[in-house]
Automatic annotation (TrEMBL):
The keyword Membrane does not apply. Pfam families: PTAC. Its cofactor is Zn(2+). This is Phosphate propanoyltransferase. NCBIfam families: PRK15070.1. Coiled coil: none annotated. It is found in: Bacterial microcompartment. Belongs to the PduL family. Keywords: Acyltransferase, Bacterial microcompartment, Metal-binding, Transferase, Zinc.
Amino acid sequence: MNDIQHQAEWLTRQIMQELAAGKNPAPLMIPVGVSNRHIHLCREDMDVLFGYGSTLTRMKAVKQPGQFAAEETVTLRTQKGDIPNVRVLGPLRNTTQIEISVADSFVLGVKAPVRMSGDLHDSPGIEIIGPKGHVAKPHGTIVAWRHIHISPQEAQLHGLRDGMEIDVQAEGLRAGVLGHVVVRVSADAVLELHIDVEEANGFGLRNGDLVYRINPTV
C-alpha cells in the first residue's frame, strides 16, 4: 500500500470519527499553487515538435501526483507576436492544450476564453514552434479557470461536490475574496488551489500560501 492510500484511509477514519461524534470539521485551509503559462502536448504534436518517439524529460514534480514540469519548452507564435520558452507539462495528454494569461493574450493578439481544462470549444488557435518542427493548432488556447483539487474524503468532510463553485478568502496586505472557484474532486488529488500568475499578484499570493473557504450562509 502506498503513502497516498495510507493517507486516504487515515483521513476516512478521521472523517467517520468526527461525524460520529457530531463535530463540525475545521475550516478548509487550502494551499496555493501558482501556475505560469504552459502547454500540454498530445503524442502526435510531441513527435512533430521534438522528433518521432521523443519523450518528455522530467525537470521537477508538481504537487498533483504523476504530473511534472518538463525540461522541454516551445515558442508560441501568432502574426502579432511570439512568446518563447513556454514550459511543457507532463505527462502527454490526448489533446494539446495551451494555457496562457490575459496579458499573454494581448501579446499574441488572441481572445483566449477563461475555461476549465479540457473545454477547448471555440478557443483560438496558435502556432507552436519546437526544435524539430512546428504545429499550427486550429484551437486549444485558454486562460485557466481558478480551481481547487481535492480528494473525495476531504470533499465529503467539507460538503463539497465535483463541479460546484465556492468562494475563498486570501489574507494579507492585498486581502480579498476569490469567487467562482471550481471544485475538482479526484481520487488521487492533493488539496491545492490553482490560480495563474496574474491572480496571484493581484492578491499578493505565492506558492504554499494558505487561503480558506468562506462557508455559505445558507
